[in-house]
DNA sequence: ATAATTAAGGATATTTTTGTCCTTAATTTA
DNA sequence: TAAATTAAGGACAAAAATATCCTTAATTAT
């Protein structure tokens, strides 16, 4: 479904979004500890998220990463798209090079609804939704 | 979603299931041509499907692969499970080691419905469904 | 200014996935 | 029986994904 890189990215974004007001910045070390991910690899992912304007980074003591803009306006779909690209949204379930309604793969008639369900969900779930649940102890970023 | 290996496997199974009555066997060469896949790699996949009792193979002239049993009783879910394992059905969307309803990941409340939708579809779509559409020119195994 | 802290980025390493090649085994046809 | 055909299987290769290490750059605190 999602690449491992993308899963780390999603959890990292949620963690940063879950930080308390007044202390909205977390270091690489904090983040990879919070989501239980390899630190150096996570660094690369965070760099990519900064490049893609989903995070803002600050160097130096008390530096770290914070959400770029409002968490309530960042949707899962943007993170997935940033890391994994749009293949999940637009690619063929069976890997056909070209997907046209007039030349559908063998699972298209069944798969279309699921893809729409999935992309609808990703486009309607924002970071605040998920961060709130983490803060309320309803959901978790690591096991 | 599915590994490339799994996509090849699905298309290959559908192709074999689409063969006309009385000639229900196809060679590796036929199959990889029909689904536009690398021959040697496809050989490995077909071997695995034979090992998993989804296909039957016969060596020698006019040998090849045929569906083991009734195509109408083989569901997409079996192929996916055989090749990719059950992680798509049971694994965590965000990669948490353990998934428990009491310790859900941050997307669980949104993801659960989609996973059920997907697994429901995979468990209710059989090879005959798809092979018929291919035979009727409604769907295609390659581009 | 200096030292300490933290992210950026390049190089490299490991693992997994995808893919190829070649030899052997089984079966059929001549 | 011999030759041809086709799958099985082992060894290897290439590419992609995942992961680590080290140096540099920026910022802050002393
Ligand atoms: S039609 Fe088939 S090929 Fe096109 S997107 Fe749907 S799943 Fe993919
Ligand atoms: S709860 Fe989260 S962790 Fe468990 S399965 Fe659902 S998605 Fe995965």
UniProtKB/TrEMBL annotation, chains A, B:
Alphabetical list of Pfam families matching this protein: Rrf2
GO molecular function term, any single one: DNA-binding transcription factor activity
Cellular-component GO terms for this entry: cytosol
PANTHER family given in the database record: HTH-TYPE TRANSCRIPTIONAL REGULATOR YWGB-RELATED, WINGED HELIX-TURN-HELIX TRANSCRIPTIONAL REGULATOR, RRF2 FAMILY
Protein name: Transcriptional regulator, BadM/Rrf2 family
Lineage, highest ranks first: Bacteria, Pseudomonadati, Bacteroidota, Cytophagia, Cytophagales
């Amino acid at each position: 479904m999602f690449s491992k890189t993308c899963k780390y990215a999603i959890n990292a974004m949620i963690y940063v979004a879950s930080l308390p007001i007044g202390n909205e910045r977390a270091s690489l070390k904090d983040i990879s500890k919070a989501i239980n991910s390899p630190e150096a690899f996570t660094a690369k992912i965070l760099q990519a998220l900064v490049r893609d304007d989903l995070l803002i980074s600050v160097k130096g003591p008390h530096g770290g990463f914070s959400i770029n803009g409002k968490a309530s306006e960042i949707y899962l779909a943007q993170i997935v798209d940033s890391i994994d690209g749009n293949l999940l949204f637009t690619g063929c379930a069976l890997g056909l090079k070209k997907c046209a309604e007039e030349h559908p793969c063998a699972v298209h008639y069944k798969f279309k609804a699921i893809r729409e369900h999935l992309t609808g969900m990703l486009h309607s779930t924002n970071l605040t939704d998920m961060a709130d649940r983490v803060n309320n102890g309803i959901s978790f970023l690591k096991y």
